Amino acid sequence: MRLLTIELDRPRCEGHGLCEEAAPDLMHLDGNGELVIDVPQVEAGTPEARAAAAAVRVCPVAGLRLA
Amino acid sequence: MVVGNGIAGLTAADALRDAGFDGELTIVGDERHPAYSRPALSKALLRDELDAHELPAPTHGATELLGVAATGVVPQRRVVQVGGEELPYDRLVIASGSRARRLTDDPGEVTLRGLDDAFALRERLATRPSVVVVGGGPLGMEVASGALASGCEVTLVSQGRPLITQLGRHLSDLFTTSALEQGLTLVETGSARLDGPSRVLLADGAALEADLIVTAVGDVPNTEWLAGSGLARCGALEVDHRGLLRPDIAAVGDVAALPTPYGTRRIPLWSSAIDQSKVAAAALIRGEEAPPLSIQPYFWTEGFGLSLKAVGFMPPSGEPEYVDGGPGGPALIRWPGAAAAINYRIPIPRLRRAAAA
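Output (C-alpha cells, whole complex):
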C-alpha cells in the first residue's frame, strides 16, 4: 500500500475552491476562504487518490501537489 | 480520441476514465508542452512565479500526441486526420480551444495566449521597454498591470472604458481608478490599428509609439480544421445541453458554444471548461442518463493591486449592493444573479450562494 500526501503551497492559494468542488471529502475552504486539507494522505489507486489528483489538477495556480 | 490538450481536453480524458471508460484513449495537442494553466500565464507567470502554470502529470493513461495538429475529421467514417494519417475513434471530444484574435497578419504581432507567448513576453518586459497594450478587456488589463509591475511605462488603448463590456460599470470604474493611481496611461478610442511593429493609430488619427506593442483583443475559436465535416455551423460548434454535437462527438471548452440563459454562446473560462468537459465525457459514455450542464460562470482577474472573483453571467446590470465591506476596500458585492469579491477572501460556494440570493 502506497500513501500519497496532498501538499498545499499556502502562499500560492488564492481560494478559488475548485479543489473543494473536485474532492469535497478531502478538503474544504473554511469561513475565511482558507483551504483546509481534511484528509492529508490517501492510498494510491483508490477513489480517494483519484479525487485528490482531480483536485490538484483543477487548481489554476499550481497550489496543490500530490506526492 | 480527444483533440486538444488544454484544461478542457485534459479534464475530458480524466472524466472519461471516471465514467468507467477503460479502453484506448488518445489525446492530440498542437502544442509540444504538457497541459498547463492558461489563467496563470497573464498573472503569476508575468510576476515571478515561473512554475505557477504547471499542472501535475496526467493519470488518464492516454497516448499523447503532442506538437501535432489535427487537420480534419470525417464523422461518417469516424476518423480524425492527424499529421497526414487517419486515426480512428469510437467517441470524439473536440477541445481545440481558441487562439488570440489578431489585428494584422504580421506574425510579429505580439499576443498572449500560449505558454511560449508568455515566456517570450516575460523576457521582453524584463528589458523594460515602453509598452502599449491594445485591448481593455481582462487580458489587456492583466498584461498592462504585469508590465507596469515590471517597471515599464505602460499605455493601455481601450475601446471605451476598460472592462466595461465584460464586467459592467462598477467593476470597470474600480479597476480603472486603481490602474490610473498606479501610473497607467489610459487612452480611449473608437478603434485602433497597428502601423508596423511600434506604432498604433487611433480613431482620431493620432499615433502612439512604443518599444513593445501587445494586442489583447479577444479570441477566435479554432474550428477551421473542421471545415467540411458538417459539425460547425457558420464557424461555431453549437453543442446541446450535455456538450454533444452528435451522440458520438462532444465539443468542450473555449471552442464550444453552449446553450445558456442568455442564448447560445461560448463561455471561455477555466472553470467553465472543466464543468463542460465533465458533463460531456459522462454523456459520451452514458448518453441521456448523464446529467445536463448547468453553468454558473466563475471568473477571476487581478491587477493594479486588486483581486477580483466573480460569479454569474457578466456584465451585471445596475449598481451592486454591498453585502460586506464598502467602496475603496475589501468588499463582497452582489447584483441580481451575480456576485463579486474584491480583495476579499471567500469560499466560492458562498460567493455562488450570494449570486443566487
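The domain at 115-215 of chain B is CATH 3.50.50.60 (FAD/NAD(P)-binding domain).
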